[in-house]
Amino acid sequence: MSDQTWKTAITDISGGQIRLRGYDIADVMEHLSFSDVVYLILKGELPDNQQRRMMEAMLVSSIDHGPTPPSNLAARTVFSGGNPLNAAVAAGVLTIGDSHGGAIEQCARILQEWAKKEGTPEELARALVADMKQKGKRMPGYGHRIHKRDPRTVKMLEIAERIGYKGKIIELAVAIQDELERTSGRNLPLNVDGAIAAVISEMGFDWRLGKGFFIISRVPGLIAHVYEEWTREKTMRKLGPPPFEYDGPEPRKLS
Amino acid sequence: MSDQTWKTAITDISGGQIRLRGYDIADVMEHLSFSDVVYLILKGELPDNQQRRMMEAMLVSSIDHGPTPPSNLAARTVFSGGNPLNAAVAAGVLTIGDSHGGAIEQCARILQEWAKKEGTPEELARALVADMKQKGKRMPGYGHRIHKRDPRTVKMLEIAERIGYKGKIIELAVAIQDELERTSGRNLPLNVDGAIAAVISEMGFDWRLGKGFFIISRVPGLIAHVYEEWTREKTMRKLGPPPFEYDGPEPRKLS
Amino acid sequence: MSDQTWKTAITDISGGQIRLRGYDIADVMEHLSFSDVVYLILKGELPDNQQRRMMEAMLVSSIDHGPTPPSNLAARTVFSGGNPLNAAVAAGVLTIGDSHGGAIEQCARILQEWAKKEGTPEELARALVADMKQKGKRMPGYGHRIHKRDPRTVKMLEIAERIGYKGKIIELAVAIQDELERTSGRNLPLNVDGAIAAVISEMGFDWRLGKGFFIISRVPGLIAHVYEEWTREKTMRKLGPPPFEYDGPEPRKLS
Amino acid sequence: MSDQTWKTAITDISGGQIRLRGYDIADVMEHLSFSDVVYLILKGELPDNQQRRMMEAMLVSSIDHGPTPPSNLAARTVFSGGNPLNAAVAAGVLTIGDSHGGAIEQCARILQEWAKKEGTPEELARALVADMKQKGKRMPGYGHRIHKRDPRTVKMLEIAERIGYKGKIIELAVAIQDELERTSGRNLPLNVDGAIAAVISEMGFDWRLGKGFFIISRVPGLIAHVYEEWTREKTMRKLGPPPFEYDGPEPRKLS
Fold first, then answer.
1. To the nearest whole angstrom, how far is the Cα of D69 from the nearest Cα of chain B?
2. Residues B12-39: pLDDT tens digits?
3. A240 and D242 in contact by Cβ < 8 A?
4. Any idea what DSSP says for residue A139?
5. pTM for the full model?
6. What is the mean pLDDT of residues C229-242?
7. Checking phi first, is residue C236 left (phi over 0); if not, alpha (psi -120 to 50) or beta?
8. Is A183's pLDDT higher than 60?
9. How far is A117 from chain D (nearest CA, A)?
10. What residues of chain D lie within 8 A of the CB of A236, using their CB?
11. Neighbours of A133 (CB within 10 A)
């Protein structure tokens, strides 16, 4: 069926030689951190010092959020069914969909689109919030079911401020928070999804990579949970769900 | 069905507060690299400077190996079927089984078991290789289908040597290579799986985490390939397989 | 986190008792075929004799299509990485996305929407094909890369004709084929995805279940391929991909 | 990398022609039920009338068990994260591991091994139970956490008895139940996993296909649950887990 040659611009391999985006693997291992190489492999170029700092903070921020997220529940459930670690981690990654981490993608897409327009961040934020309201849509990347102010966002913005990495997109993201809270009178903080969306957009990454950054950050956390399940729990323990109530057809007979 | 309370020692969460292994997330984001926090979340404690250096080199080493590994083929195939990025990455992670990355787990288990015994690395290597030979088993973590000397292993060992991080387990891993090559007369280099097995064992990680380290390292590479598939290829392109030959029953009739 | 009670209308369970949609499992096992029970569990009610006949033909039709579909490639690749049968089957199911089997969902959605309108099947087909053409869209469920006339569709329609199960939706699906071929002058047969879409729509199933029927039908085929991989092949055999060509950055140095 | 030709004995495809195990797809759709074709594709040959009857009962028996099994929890959790139906079903299939459905494989392996030995079913059961006890192992396929007598097993054995399909392996499976209950004084009924193991072994299927039969049977149930989640629930609802208790390190400072 297939005799085509694949084309790829990521890694070139031959006997004894591995080059990532043109750089020899030995040089890369000598000089770059893992976080740098994540940047390199996804962007094709090396980060500068500000980008390096933001990448580290961003990847650290979402490494785990305790046992509550659905990705951890799915990963532990699959492991508990008597499956290998990689299958459990895969189930966790599978869970990271449009409603769990997907806000990064959606938020980045909107930020990237609006940042191209004319206007100050405040002007754009006003127009954007009004536009979303008119369309009856919720702005993804704002609000959190547990945190009033997400400590990860606070720290990410603080670092960006200190090192002078607040370009138009990060400022737009903050201005949207202020506008959302001003117009709604409610607590609608930029959450960690929104902060990651702003930072990767500022770095020039395509919004399509939004979920990818969250997955890279969260996979070590999933592995920690699977390993804890492995070493502390029995298989097929009662992981859930809560008691269920059947509300289908009453008992009936086949005629 | 479930009214038990889960116990976890990884992350504690409450409104406005996230603590990883006891450390506040804001402090962790301020002071630690992503690679450090991978170490922290899996080990429960912080790495020292030698361990930090080895972690970075190790995670960088396996981030990608071009389009040839089966995990990349599975990830691109799932994406090409018209599925989201996370589903494609999950398929890649699913592929990382006993025959693809699993050698890390198996090699680490053997190294950890043998390093507890009395004897110099050379003595242990001789006994181990003889024992494997007698049992008719292959030592996992040695030999490579493409590389005669794996450039990733060479660099990892060079860094370990330079910073003085060659404890008994790493020395045992190298001694096994020498013994395998001496007794077989063939090229059987410590490959990158074996090198990772040796390094994580030296750091005191449980062999059960072997596949986990490979997954953490490889996930960004999988994402780069899925993104390349997304942005450079059409869905349902001919990804494979090669032409097939049917050798089942001849055409026959239902009576 | 969770103290809600789940609600479900599918199956009620208590000690010694299992009821599917109200029917006792023992009665169901006594009187119904597997295909009947697939209908029951998804619809909530029993099929009549015509529906029973169509269900069997439909589920049989797509059970396998040789090693060429991407779902088989993904399943075999995951198994070949040294993973259990269920992980390999899961990878196959993961592949069944918008571009591989997804046409059933999309085609059923369109058929269900248009069948509600006034007009004969021929009138509706003319309007629908004109509408798609104007919007620059391709009608999903028509055309096949291997078969000029899909033998599965031919047989499904023949059975429907013979038993008198050609309601408005099936007639619309056939009329669309005729209209597509008349207006394009090309071979654009109703393929098996389109035929399944028409049959499940005629039965009153929600288009959202389209991919589900394909998955039910194909899973035994995936298992047959994984089992063949297990019993006839070595792990990590060369499953693909074809030779690749690197077209990224030229070799360069880290400064 | 790959220029080999694949070999397969399952399905032969060419333009306008599909043959399953040598039989033309149109004939197969005309004459066989879905359950028959599951048998055909996995065995290579057609079932006789007794085997047809047992296949239907067996596939029906395990189609669903309410929301409690971990595979349903994983499938609903993945869907709830904002993912497509196929990804959710894949997560359900992923969960079906050694501790959830895996008893079929393990039980079938033991039954197939012991049925080859000389002796009546009762003699073999005594020897087998004594052997397991001496090795400190539990016999897989016996006992149930909800049902004292599994109604699915009772019905499957009743049908086997009525149609005269009780060969040596099914009799051995029943004799083991009697011996386990006699020697332990506890309720240890042949459960549905054990019953499926006995029936497929009697039919001559390899134990390696044990999990496969369970997956085929359960996939429609998983789809019914995912569809119910889709149409009755909001995404990211609280699916679990129960409240958690953190028992890791006390709050501490990075020095």
1. 10
2. 988 888 999 999 999 999 999 999 999 9
3. yes
4. P
5. 0.95
6. 81
7. left
8. yes
9. 30
10. 70, 99-100
11. 14
